[in-house]
Design goal:
Elements: H1 3-25, H2 31-53, H3 61-85, H4 91-98, H5 101-112, H6 120-137, H7 145-171, H8 179-197, H9 210-238, H10 240-244, H11 246-260, H12 269-284, H13 289-302, H14 309-312, H15 319-331
Amino acid sequence: MQSWRAQFALLAAIWGSSFLCIKVLDEVWAPVDVALARVALGALFLVGLLVAKRTPLPRDPAAWRHVAVVGLLMNALPFTLFAYGEQHVSSVIAGLWNGTTPLMTLIAVLLLLPEERPNCRRIAGVAGGFAGLVVLLGPWQGVGGGKLLGDLACALGACCYGLGLTYTRRNLSGRPEGGIELAGAQLLCATAMLLVVAPLGGTPSFALDAGQLASVLVLGVLGSGLAYVLTHAIVRVAGATTFSLVTYVIPIFSTFLGVTILSETVTWNQPAGAAIVLGSMWAASRQPRRAERRADVDVDLAKRPRAGVLERVRGLGRDDDDVADAHDELVA
């Protein structure tokens, strides 16, 4: 039962190290090639796992339509955007921008899911999140030139994650297929999309040194393959709420690796801004104990007739569960 803690730390380390690996590969590959390697190796890993387990990929055409959209929003677009962004900003900054995903998800949920009503706590969370973004961006230090392009690309990547999680919550949460089957199909779709546009980035060099080869393997086999298996194991044992905390740990790893290995610099506003964003999202996902008990009673009275995310949760205090459950359906 306690092994999930080691899996949690390993998962945070894998995803946190992704930004270091992207920075290394940006020296030799175009952003689209970095993204393609991530999804292709991840797809090979998951499909190989499914073959070993004799588990088929989804057969329903509707499932493939949905996972194609999710593959675009959760893999093809953001992976390319973050790789492009890191050509202009440090891996530390990219990791901190990735930490704004809960804010982007909350905004997308409030805008795109009519049943999710804004209230004072959520509005305050969004306002605090935007204040954190301003601190993170540090406009008083100057944001012109390539740095602005890098910040914008990373911010758009985080927006893609927010949209992807919201789309998953609406369209994939209640499907009968398992998480690994959906994730495998998702990565296959993302691979096909990137194969179409990859020629625009030129022919990548395959004369990689040991560090670059290791970065490819970490990004693809671990970050887009093994990480999904770890997610499934953590959620199954420790629950979706515990898994959602990984969002708060990833920037710690990405910052530590960027500073210690790449000798990147960090100014006070960067971790401070990320902390404000994450703290605002944590506060927005909480609710008073009395309201939480009332939500639990509501669920019991309803006898939980369906297993969908929206049907089994009725209170703000479970929003972190909702997002994590959506993420579980994506990558478990």
